[in-house]
């Protein structure tokens, strides 16, 4: 399918209850048959739930946010966007009731793409038990060609009124592609300013200089899986992380740590993750916590055991940091739209804006000043300033002088800053004024290198699915058929988009081997944990911190016996799950090798490479 550029505008809203007080109506889907259903978001005993009834499969009532108080605070920033001027699907008889079955983006989607994703492979050399997306034995291999990737990048840039500026290459594991550097260069050629690589980082750890090559090609940020600070909470790359951070430090590559949070597995390690990031603040730009979204169908008992939501994770940060980072330090993502709205009002130019649903994400910034942890709201009245900014934007839109409103900002900025607490090296008032009025963003880079971004995004699953959220999504996947699909439609109902389209554009293993004769599609990474743990880098990076103040440090490093016992039990369960899966994978791998060899010899391939563990060297040429 070729992308269709329509001339529509934002024509309808699915429901008119966005930002309303609870209870309110929305739409969801049945986790069993996936039909679209009316749903209610409501409060019960300080917890927010989403409930719907399927005529065939009964009632589904799921936790939506773990705090009514925090939900209502975030709800204040609900802000609807201007929609899109282009869509990538032909218009159906769409009044929104068919969402998410009309994705493309469709005419009802409320937001432009904020961060685009392009999956460059579905292969991965790790087999994490909590991963929802890697090629398993027998799966066809999806690896779009360089031309297909270029077309997807062009398609995203063609979005109006705001062309996409940021792309993340993801997988599977993108570093398994030998032409990754070329892919990044193509993104640069197509005009992308921000290029992010979503990776487990193991190949960066084991290939000195790869981080520098990626940086030189144009990668701005490594979006690095990092689920905890111990081998138990982070089985994926705990031992490799010291090398990865070191390689990125040498390459001047910024890193965002990405922990998937699972209750009872790594939620006791949240403050340690923050602590780790602060100790590496010269490299680590931020943390993006992702409360777990469940893959496929799952029994209620297990969901209740493992479900954690944004306010639950933030409460843990407050608790585990000894109150140094508080719940009130976090704000819903759309709060920043008051800044872009103001710039838009004063310049008359349409701006990139962050108007995702208020329940999708939250964030704050934290500074380390003279060994003390200092969240931004400790010295800057974020809420008051954003409110004031909104009033100024409305005044300009109502016809007041832009110059007068800008002058008001200049004279009032300092009243929102607590000079006594302000980090000495941070000229915050000037920085805000330069960005807002002069549109000089050079000082923002300095702000980012001195602070740590702590964000959360809770991707949805079949059980907490809310159509109001997905239709405001700004994290989108581009597909080779020309469509652009919101993340929570792409991954939550994979049979509709992700799996269906990737299968359509995939090749069989045999075909893939013919064009990649020196590679093994099932190659798995083998770790030498003892060797890695004995390296000086490892010992240095996991040693006790030197920046944080003693309150925080003791909150982290002196856990109770009860906590330690619980952690041990969880660790044992997690390790058993990993071992079980590894055994299954090993058996599958052997079966696959036998099958691949068998097929290759049947096809009378000239002398298959017989060396143990090597794939067939040549098969029939793909046209
Ligand atoms: S998620 Fe967006 S693009 Fe997809 S059907 Fe809903 S409104 Fe349309
Ligand atoms: S990816 Fe999901 S959680 Fe994130 S903005 Fe989109 S709808 Fe919200």
Summarize the structure.
With 623 residues, the chain is of the alpha/beta class.
- Regarding quaternary structure, what we see is single chain
Mean pLDDT: 84
Class of secondary structure makeup: alpha/beta
Helix content: 25-40%
How would you sum up the major sheet?
Answer: 13 strands, mixed
- Strand fraction: 15-25%
Query: What shape does the CA trace take?
Result: globular
Q: Please report the distance between the alpha carbons of the first and last residues.
A: 21 Å
Would you count the extended β strands for me? 17
Low-confidence stretches: 1-12, 549-559, 604-623
Task: Report what the structure shows.
36% of the residues lie in helices and 15% in strands. The protein contains 22 helices and 17 strands. The two termini are 21 Å apart. It has helices at 68-75, 146-157, 180-189, 202-206, 210-217, 241-251, 270-279, 300-306, 310-320, 337-347, 382-397, 402-412, 428-438, 442-450, 467-470, 487-490, 498-504, 509-515, 529-533, 536-541, 550-557, 561-602; strands at 24-29, 36-44, 47-54, 58-65, 115-119, 166-170, 194-199, 221-225, 254-258, 260-261, 284-291, 331-332, 361-369, 372-375, 451-457, 475-478, 484-486. The protein has a domain at 322-450. By secondary structure, the protein is of the alpha/beta class. The chain is globular and about 80 Å long. The strands form two sheets. Strands 5, 6, 7, 8, 9, 10, 11, 12, 13, 14, 15, 16 and 17 form a 13-stranded mixed β-sheet that branches. A four-stranded antiparallel β-sheet has the order 1-2-3-4. Residues 1-12, 549-559 and 604-623 have low confidence and may be disordered.
């Amino acid at each position: 399918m070729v992308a269709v550029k329509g001339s529509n505008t934002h024509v309808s809203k699915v429901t008119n209850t966005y930002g309303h007080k609870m209870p309110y109506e929305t739409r969801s889907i049945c986790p069993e048959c996936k039909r679209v259903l009316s749903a209610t978001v409501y409060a019960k005993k300080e917890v927010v739930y989403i409930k719907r009834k399927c005529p065939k499969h009964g009632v589904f009532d799921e936790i939506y946010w773990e705090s009514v108080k925090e939900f209502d605070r975030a709800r204040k920033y609900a802000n609807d966007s201007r929609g899109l001027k282009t869509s990538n699907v032909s218009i159906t008889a769409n009044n929104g009731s068919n969402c998410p079955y009309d994705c493309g983006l469709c005419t009802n989607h409320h937001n432009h793409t904020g961060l685009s994703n392009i999956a460059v492979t579905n292969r991965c050399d790790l087999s994490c038990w909590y991963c929802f997306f890697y090629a398993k034995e027998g799966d066809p291999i999806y690896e779009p060609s360089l031309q297909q990737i270029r077309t997807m990048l062009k398609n995203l840039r063609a979005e109006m009124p705001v062309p996409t500026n940021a792309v993340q290459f993801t997988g599977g594991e993108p570093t398994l592609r030998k032409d990754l550097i070329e892919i990044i260069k193509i993104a640069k050629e197509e005009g992308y300013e921000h290029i992010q690589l979503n990776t487990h980082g193991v190949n960066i750890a084991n290939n000195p200089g790869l981080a520098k090559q990626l940086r030189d090609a144009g990668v701005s940020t490594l979006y690095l899986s990092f689920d905890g600070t111990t081998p138990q909470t982070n089985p994926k790359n705990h031992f490799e992380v010291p090398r990865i951070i070191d390689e990125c430090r040498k390459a001047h590559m910024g890193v965002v740590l990405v922990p998937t949070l699972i209750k009872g597995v790594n939620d006791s390690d949240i403050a340690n993750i923050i602590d780790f990031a602060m100790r590496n603040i010269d490299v680590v730009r931020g943390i993006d916590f992702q409360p777990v979204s469940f893959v496929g169908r799952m029994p209620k008992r297990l969901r209740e055991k493992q479900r954690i939501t944004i306010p639950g994770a933030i409460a843990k940060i407050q608790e585990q940091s000894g109150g140094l980072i508080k719940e009130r330090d976090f704000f819903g993502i759309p709060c920043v739209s008051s800044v872009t709205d103001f710039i838009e009002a004063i310049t008359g130019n349409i701006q990139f804006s962050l108007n995702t649903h208020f329940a999708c994400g939250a964030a704050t910034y934290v500074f380390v000043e003279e060994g003390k942890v200092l969240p931004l709201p400790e010295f800057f009245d974020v809420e008051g300033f954003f409110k004031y900014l909104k009033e100024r934007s409305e005044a300009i839109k109502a016809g007041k002088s832009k110059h007068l409103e800008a002058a008001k900002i200049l004279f009032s900025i300092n009243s929102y800053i607590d000079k006594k607490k302000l980090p000495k090296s941070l000229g915050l008032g000037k920085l805000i004024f330069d960005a807002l009025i002069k549109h000089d963003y050079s000082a923002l880079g300095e702000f980012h290198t001195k602070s740590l971004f702590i964000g959360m995004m809770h991707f949805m699953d079949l059980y907490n699915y809310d159509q109001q959220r997905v239709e405001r999504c700004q994290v989108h996947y581009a597909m080779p058929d020309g469509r652009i699909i919101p993340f929570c439609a792409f991954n939550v109902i994979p049979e509709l988009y992700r799996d269906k389209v990737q299968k359509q554009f995939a090749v069989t293993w045999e075909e893939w081997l013919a064009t990649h004769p020196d590679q093994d599609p099932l190659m798995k990474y083998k770790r030498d944990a003892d060797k890695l743990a004995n390296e000086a880098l490892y010992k240095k990076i996991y040693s006790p911190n030197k920046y944080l103040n003693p309150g925080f440090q003791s909150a982290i490093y002196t856990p109770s016996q009860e906590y330690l016992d619980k952690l041990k039990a969880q660790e044992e369960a997690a390790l058993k799950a990993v071992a079980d899966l590894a055994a299954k994978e090993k058996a599958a791998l052997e079966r696959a090798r036998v099958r691949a060899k068998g097929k290759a010899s049947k096809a009378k391939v000239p002398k298959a490479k017989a060396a143990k563990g090597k794939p067939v060297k040549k098969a029939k040429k793909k046209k």
